[in-house]
Structures
1.
Amino acid sequence: MQVSGNNSYDLVVIGSGPAGQKAAICAAKMRKKVAVIERKRCIGGVCVNTGTIPSKTFREAVLYLSGLRQRTFYGRGYAVKDQISMQDLVFRSDAVMAREIEVIKSQLRRNRVTVLEGNGRFVGEHQVEVLSDTGSTVVYGEYFVIACGTRPAHDEQIPIDGVRIFDSDQVHELQELPRELIVVGAGIIGLEYASMFAALGVKVTLLDQRPLMLDFADREIVESLCFQLRQLGTVFRLGEKVVSVGFDQERDRVFAKLESGKTVHGQALLYAVGRRANSDQLNLEAIGLHPDGRGKLIVDQNFQTAVPYVYAAGDVIGFPALASTSMEQGRLASCHIFGVAAAIPANLIPYGVYTIPEISMVGATEEQLTREKIPYEIGIARYAELAKGQMLGDDQGFLKLIFDPATLKLLGVHIIGDRAAEIVHIGQVVLAMGGTIEYFRDAVFNYPTLAEAFKVAALDGLNKL
Ligand SMILES: Cc1cc2nc3c(=O)[nH]c(=O)nc-3n(C[C@H](O)[C@H](O)[C@H](O)COP(=O)(O)OP(=O)(O)OC[C@H]3O[C@@H](n4cnc5c(N)ncnc54)[C@H](O)[C@@H]3O)c2cc1C
C-alpha cells in the first residue's frame, strides 16, 4: 500500500487520553513529526470524557451541594440546596470537561501534533488506516504508541439500558437521582460512586464477590472508610456473588439476585465490575501482536511490546490503570523510542481513591511489611486533633506514617480524610529522597494546615520508641 510523505510520521499515537497526549507531546518536544489518532468527540480520552474529570468534578459538586462537611457545624439536615438534581451535579462536570478539552487541543496544537479524527486500525506493518465520516486515510508510522484505553466490561446477562441499569460511562447521562442504588463491584470506581450517591442521601447497597475491598490499601484505612460509609447509610454485601440482574416491571424496581439466595432491590443499579481494553478494535493480527484474554497488551519495562516498533501505555497495559501513571508511561514510552533515558521511581506511585472520604497512600502497607517480615513502627495523627481538621469539619480523618524503628526511615504513608490525595505528596517526596521521619519532626509547617499531620504523626511515632 502506498503512503505519501504527508502521511508519514516519526510517531503515530492511537488514543488521546493521558497516555497518548503525553507520548505525543514528549515526542513533539524532541522535534519529531507526530500524529494522534482519536475518535470523533473523544479528545482527552476516558479521562476527560467519562472517567476521571467528570467523576471528580461530580464529587466536588456533591460535596458542595450536599453541604456534607458543613454538617458538623450546622446540623445533620444542612444542605446548600434542598432538592439536588442530576442536572445540578452534571452542570459542573460539563463546564470543567469543556475547558479541559480546550486545554488539551491547544497543547497539541502548540506542539504541532497532528490530530487525525477517526478510528485507527492496523492494516500492515507500520501502517494504520484512519476511518472517519469523511473517508479513510492510511498513515505510516516509524513508531507507534498504542494508548487506546478501556471501556466498561459488560456481561450479556446484564441488561444495561443506561437508565435504570447503567455503567460508569453512563452516570452523567442519568435524568434523575435514584432513591436507592445497587452498586455491583466494590472496586475503586464502584466505591467512589457509591460514596458520592450515599453522600447525596441515596440508599446504597454495595455488592462484590470479593470478601475484601481495596486489597492494596492499608486495612485500618479501609475499615475507617467502611465505617464512614455505613454512617451514610451504605449497606455492604461483600463475598456475595451476583448471579443475575434484571428489571421487575410490575414493581418498577431493579433487582440483583445473589448466589446465597438473597435478592437485593433498588430503583437503579450501577454495574461497575471492571474494564476491558479496546485493543480488540485495532486489528492487531495485521502486525502479529496478541493481547491477553481481557485485551491487555504485554510490555517490558520500557513499554515496548513484542513488536519492536510498537509501544503501549496507559490502561491498555493494565494495573495500576490511573490517569496519573498513564501520563508518565506515555512520556516514558516516547523517551525510550527516541533514545532518552528516563524511569518511574520504583514503588513510589501514589494512589488516590476519591471516595467520600478520600483515601491516599504511597509506599509500603503494614500488611505488606508483615508478610515480608520487615519490622516497622507507626505514628498516627488524627484530623480531630488538628486545628485545620476541625475547621474543615472532618473529625474522622487520620494520617499514618510507617517507618523503620531502627533507622527512622519512612516506609509508607496512608491517609483517609479531606485532601488526602493532595497532602500524600509530602510523604512521597521524603520517601523518594530516602528520608527519615525526623524531617517531619524538625520541619516547620504552615499552621493551621492538614500537612501538619505529618509532624504530629512523626512525634507520635517517635514517642513509641
Ligand atoms: C469513572 C472513572 C474514574 C476515574 N478516576 C480516576 C482518578 O480519579 N484518578 C486517576 O488517576 N485515574 C482515574 N481513572 C482512570 C483514568 O481515567 C484512566 O487511567 C486513564 O484515562 C487512562 O488513560 P489512557 O490514555 O490509557 O486511555 P483513555 O483515557 O481510556 O483514552 C483512550 C482513548 O483512545 C481512543 N481510542 C481507542 N481506540 C481507538 C481507535 N481504534 N482509534 C482511535 N482512537 C481510539 C478512545 O476513544 C479514547 O479516547 C478513572 C476512570 C474511570 C472510568
2.
Amino acid sequence: MLRSAILAAARSNRVERLVETAPVSRNIVRRFIAGEQADEALQRTRELAADGLAVTIDYLGEDTTNPHQAEATRDEYLKLLDALHAAELTPAAEVSLKLSALGQVFDEKVALEHARAICAKASEAGTTVTLDAEDHTTTDSTLDVLAQLRAEFPTTGAVVQSYLRRTEADCRELAVEGSRVRLCKGAYKEPESVAYQTRLDVDKSYVRCLNVLMSGGGYPMIATHDPRLVAIGEDRAKWFDRSPDEFEFQMLYGVRPDEQLRLARAGYTVRVYLPYGTQWYAYMMRRLAERPANLGFLARALRSRG
Ligand SMILES: Cc1cc2nc3c(=O)[nH]c(=O)nc-3n(C[C@H](O)[C@H](O)[C@H](O)COP(=O)(O)OP(=O)(O)OC[C@H]3O[C@@H](n4cnc5c(N)ncnc54)[C@H](O)[C@@H]3O)c2cc1C
C-alpha cells in the first residue's frame, strides 16, 4: 500500500515541486546521488575505484518528451565517457542509461540512434553500456533496441526484473555466451496481470532467474541488497563452478556500503550504481519506496511546505 502510494507520488508533478524545494531534501539526496555535475560523479568514481569497487554511472533523467532534451542527454553521456577515459577510469567504470531519457517515449528509432552513438563512444573509451529496465510497457521495445545494439556492440548489458512474470523466459533467451545481464527485483508500480505482487513471489522468481543466468553462458550481474539473495548468489557461483571473474554483484550508491566493501574484499567484483544530475526526484522516490525507514524524510519535506 505504502510502496504504491510513494511510487504514484514519484509521477506527481505537484509532490515533485514540494520535495525538490524542501530544505531537508538536499541531505538525503546526497546520500544516494553523487552530485548534480559530472565532475562530482568522476570524483565519487575515483573514490569508489580506490576502494576496489567497479562503477556504473547513470545520468539522471527519464520519460523525455522532447527531442532537444533527448539530444542533450546523449551529449552529456558522450562528454562523460570522454572524461572517464581521460581520467583513466575505464574500464572500471561503465555507464547505465534509460532509453526513455533518449526519446523512447516518442520515437524508438531516435532513442536507438542516440544509444548507438553512446555505445560507440563507450567502446572507443574502452568500456561499455547497460540499458536500464523501466516500466513494463517499455520492456519489448528495450529488448528490441538491445538486440540491435548488440549486433554492433556485443557487450551492451541487459537488465531484467524478477517481479515481471515474463522474466524467467527472457533470462533463457539472454543467458548466452558473452551476454551481460543485470538481474534486479524491479522498482516500478506494476499491475498484477504482468507482475508478481508479493515479496515472496518476487524473491522466488529472482532465484529461478538467477539459476537460469548462473547455469547459462552469459555474464550475470546480481543486483540486490537482499542478504538472502546475495548468499544464494554466492552459493550458485560455487554450485555452477563460476570463478569471481565470471559474474558480479551490483548495489546502489549509498545502500549497504559496508556490504559492498565486504564482498569486494572477499574477492568478488562489486559494481556500484552511481547516479548524478539535477533530475533526481523520480529516482529518489523509488529508493524511498524500497525503504520505509527513510519515509520520515518525505513526511518532513511535505510538512515543512504545508
Ligand atoms: C545496481 C542496481 C541496478 C538497478 N537497476 C534497475 C533497473 O534498471 N530497473 C529497475 O526497475 N530497478 C533497478 N534496480 C532496483 C531494483 O529493482 C530494486 O528496486 C532495488 O534494488 C531494491 O531491491 P533489493 O533487491 O535490494 O531488495 P529489497 O526487497 O528492497 O530489500 C531486501 C532486503 O535487503 C536489505 N536492504 C535493502 N535496502 C537496505 C538498506 N538501505 N540498508 C540495509 N539493508 C537493506 C534488507 O535486509 C531488506 O529486507 C537496480 C538495483 C541495483 C542494486
